[in-house]
Design goal:
single chain, 70 residues, alpha+beta, two-stranded antiparallel ribbon, 1 helix, binds zinc ion
């Protein structure tokens, strides 16, 4: 017995438009119409972009990255 699944699931699929950015630290949604911190990092041969909702999260990320060395 299968009901029609009309309700929005936990993962709402974006239909067109720009994908919403998410903070790489706290996963908070980022208002892309305003300035937000962003960092790029090369991992192996892949270039990854990290976005942050605030400079605090950027600092948190940078600290965790430097602590990760070794
Ligand atoms: Zn954040």
């Amino acid at each position: 017995m299968y009901d029609r699944n009309d309700t929005a699931g936990p993962e709402s699929t974006a239909t067109g438009g720009q994908p919403n950015e998410q903070c790489s630290v706290c996963e908070h949604a980022i208002e892309t119409t305003e300035w937000y911190p962003i960092r790029g990092q090369v991992e192996d041969v892949n270039f990854s972009l990290y976005t942050f909702c605030s400079e605090e999260c950027l600092e948190t990320w940078e600290n965790s990255e430097s602590n990760d060395a070794e």
